[in-house]
Every structure is written in C-alpha cells, then in structure tokens.
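Student: Please help interpret what follows.
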Amino acid sequence: MQYYPRKQLSSQGINITPLIDIVFLLLVFFLLTSQFINEKQFEISLPDAKSGQARSVEQPTLISINSAGKAFLADELLSAEQLDALLLEMASTQQSLVLRVDKQASFEPVMALMDRARQQGVAAIGFAVQEPVGRP
C-alpha cells in the first residue's frame, strides 16, 4: 500500500507586512517633502520688547502690516471689505487678534486697523514682538 503525503492547506490570506512597510515609507516621504506654513511670507522686522508674554489660550488670527502700511492675512493682501468681513467673523466667534507690525510702519494704518477691529467688536487685540537679541 502506497501512502501519498497529504497536501497541507496553506492560508491563502494576503501578507500585509510589505504593504505596511510601503505605507510607512510613503508617510515619511510626504512628511519630509511637504511644505510647512511659514509665517514669514514677506520680511517684517518686529520691534523688541522685554515684557512680551506668550499666549496659549487659543490660536489668534494673525494680521501682518508691512512697512508700507498694507495689511496681510498669511500672504494674501486684504482689501477693506475683506478686512471688515474677517473682523466681523472674529467678533462673532470671540477670537482674538494679534498684529505683526513692521517697526518701520507708520502708526496711522495700525491705529486705523485697531479702530476698525474695536468697531466690529473684536474683544482682544495684541501685538507680536520679539525678544531683544544680546541684551540681558
């Protein structure tokens, strides 16, 4: 009598180990090659202040004013209508406003923006400053 070895049933499942490796490699690739948001879309020289405090409550809206007095949200130039709409939205959500003002900018556009924000109902307005370099 001749015996034939039994064929073992192998699991016909898909081996996902190489798939997981490829997914992690793609994740690392996209993390390393993606562009991160950079606040410095254009050059603004912030004034120095020793008494500046970091805010950690919520993420405020950051409006930049360059040396020519133009207002920007990220890298987009804001028109008067866009600025009013943004300030109204901020007032309705109780979001605070932080102004990044170039130290060469005149005071008039800054004051006009602050006045507009108060008229629209923005509760908190602050200024972005940098620590003095080389001073104790």
Q: What stands out?
A: The first helix runs from residue 17 to 33. Strands lie at 61-65, 71-73, 76-77, 97-101, 125-127.
